Amino acid sequence: MPHRLVLLGPPASGKGTQGRRLAEDLGLAYLSTGALLRSAVEQGTELGKQAAPVLERGEYLSDELMCSIMGEWLGRQKGGWVLDGFPRSITQTDFLSAWLADKSLKLDAAILLEVPLDELLIRLGNRIECPECRWSGRKQDLNGADRCPECGGVPAPRADDTPTNFRSRLAEYEENTLPVVSRYEQEGLLHRFDATRGPDEGAKRLLELVKSLKSHG
Ligand SMILES: Nc1ncnc2c1ncn2[C@@H]1O[C@H](COP(=O)(O)OP(=O)(O)O)[C@@H](O)[C@H]1O
């Protein structure tokens, strides 16, 4: 069974929703770098102070900062993981490859969540996130209540989910992350996944896809 996975995809393609579920179903650790940064901003930590203006502009944080955060996080893990939001550039991809090689480990797969642009925009306007536990979903998932289904917090739209910010994040994605997609494709690690279904059916299909993949050790 694969146990080191990377999720790729444009903003609002469902990496958070699917990544969390996938990690839970496979008994793996899950990290959303975006959620980690938003928590840091809300808590006003040093990292948060650095990240706040960058997130507000819809730009990517520096590779140096992200690689140092990831080195720390990866070093704390005892088992496998699902990464949502890293790597997002070729420098970050090289960092992850070198980190794994140093430990004689391998990435099992990079899964690209594919969703057309018009659907991304609809999802963007509909998405909410819990500030307490970082659950992320759609307004209709609350079933008329205003409480997070996971922890009882009060979910709200993300500050960076405005159309202007989205366009900037999409431009960053196209410039910096599409080369990562090509790199993993060349390495034979890329799996394209049609992520246009609803969250439940998407999760079921994604789990099937991942279970059909081989572990690289
Ligand atoms: N690996 C990374 N490198 C640079 N910036 C990052 C990285 N991961 C997250 N970020 C920052 O966090 C923001 C939010 O990320 P995320 O929650 O994954 O949202 P989305 O995928 O919807 O854009 C990004 O726009 C970027 O500013």
UniProtKB/TrEMBL annotation:
Molecular function as annotated in GO:
kinase activity
Q: What is its main location?
A: cytoplasm
Please give the InterPro entries that the UniProt record associates with this protein. Adenyl_kin_sub (IPR006259), Adenylat/UMP-CMP_kin (IPR000850), Adenylat_kinase_CS (IPR033690), P-loop_NTPase (IPR027417)
- From the Swiss-Prot or TrEMBL record, state where the protein is found: Cytoplasm
Identify the pathway.
Answer: Purine metabolism; AMP biosynthesis via salvage pathway; AMP from ADP: step 1/1
Keyword Protease part of the UniProt annotation? no
Where is AMP annotated to bind? 33, 38, 59-61, 85-88, 92, 158, 169
Pfam families in the record, alphabetically?
ADK (PF00406)
Q: Which SUPFAM superfamilies match?
A: P-loop containing nucleoside triphosphate hydrolases
Q: Which Gene3D superfamilies match?
A: P-loop containing nucleotide triphosphate hydrolases (3.40.50.300)
Extract the ranges annotated as region (NMP): 32-61
Q: Where does ATP bind?
A: 12-17, 127, 197
Instruction: Give the keywords, sorted.
Output: ATP-binding, Cytoplasm, Kinase, Nucleotide biosynthesis, Nucleotide-binding, Transferase
Q: What does the UniProt function comment say about this protein?
A: Catalyzes the reversible transfer of the terminal phosphate group between ATP and AMP. Plays an important role in cellular energy homeostasis and in adenine nucleotide metabolism.
Please quote what the entry notes about the protein's domains.
Consists of three domains, a large central CORE domain and two small peripheral domains, NMPbind and LID, which undergo movements during catalysis. The LID domain closes over the site of phosphoryl transfer upon ATP binding. Assembling and dissambling the active center during each catalytic cycle provides an effective means to prevent ATP hydrolysis.
How it assembles, according to the record, is:
Monomer.
Q: Which family, according to UniProt?
A: Belongs to the adenylate kinase family.
What is this protein identified as? Answer: Adenylate kinase
Can you name the source organism?
Luteolibacter rhizosphaerae
Instruction: Identify the gene encoding this protein.
Output: adk
